[in-house]
Design brief:
about 180 residues, alpha+beta, single chain, six-stranded antiparallel β-sheet
Length: about 180
């Protein structure tokens, strides 16, 4: 019986040592787990910074860099044109200039194919936001006397483009809201 008691005591001490070692190993693994969690968070943060995110809605008008190229901080990659609000610059003669003022309502007439005209209006309301103070010569040859007679003034109008009807570079007719063409 005494021998049996010593054997059990030895087994108990060995089990106690194994338990302490296992607890220390568990504490070490928990510490490593916390380190790995921090590393995973860091890598996720770095990946999130690798994505291109546009600051606003729009369409890509120019691409400066291609996929796979190495970039530094602050280097432009794409040019994005805003499409939710568009503006149009147009020219008016001095006799029509008196009919316009800042804030004057105008409409932009757009050529839309017949099949889509049912769902989209052909006229987009706009507002005059700027009128040039100085006239420009309308002729391409201002050296000729006839070309210098006609002066025009640049006018800018903005329009909400919620339905996406307007595009950059699209030709439009500008009319006052009552229907007269400017």
């Amino acid at each position: 019986p005494m021998r049996r008691k010593e054997e059990l005591g030895t087994k108990l001490k060995a089990a106690d040592y194994r338990l302490r070692a296992a607890r220390k190993m568990l504490a070490g693994m928990r510490q490593k787990s916390r380190v790995y969690d921090v590393q995973v968070k860091l890598v996720r943060d770095q990946l999130a910074r690798c994505k291109l995110v546009a600051p606003n809605k729009g369409i890509v008008t120019s691409r400066y860099k291609n996929p796979g190229e190495i970039l530094g901080a602050g280097i432009p990659v794409l040019e994005i044109g805003e499409i939710d609000t568009m503006y149009v610059d147009f020219f008016v003669t001095p006799d029509k200039l008196s009919e316009l003022s800042d804030g004057a309502p105008v409409e932009l007439r757009v050529d839309i194919p017949e099949q889509s005209r049912k769902s989209s209006p052909a006229a987009v309301p706009a507002t005059v936001v700027w009128i040039s103070e100085h006239g420009n010569v309308s002729s391409y040859n201002p050296a000729r006397r006839e070309g210098r007679k006609e002066r025009v003034f640049r006018v800018r109008a903005t329009a909400a483009n919620n339905q996406g009807i307007l595009n950059r570079g699209m030709p439009v007719d500008v009319r006052r809201r009552n229907g007269d063409e400017s």
